[in-house]
Amino acid sequence: LEEGWKALAQKSAVLKRSLFWVGGPADQTYIAKIAVRGFNLAGKLDLKELAGVLSGAQAVVSVDTGPMHLAAALGRPVVALFGPTAPWRTGPFGPGHRVVRLDLSCSPCFKKTCPEGPCLKNLTPEMVFKNLQGLLADTEA
Fold it and tell me: pTM of the full predicted structure?
């Protein structure tokens, strides 16, 4: 997963937009490894500051987490990556979002951990980037 996030960050350079990486204090080390470009704000923002950063985003790429739901609630377009959870159950809700998930027989399983993890590991940076490009094109049209 780490290499996939790095590759997505590198691919996104052609979009000529700033990247902001968010997460909690426990995410700081992981994000420091994957944030090959952009600003690592993990563990540095309270909820109000996070909302401020997300409200200014042209697009948000996220797994099924609190920041994804906050971005959607703020009306920001989201590329949501799903594996063990179900987008029809947990969102993102509202218009203009894109969900990226694999149609696997084991997904959604709703497990916290998976010995194989193909549902997220096999989401390629290319798949995510293509959806991000499409989302940005939709919002700029």
Answer: 0.91
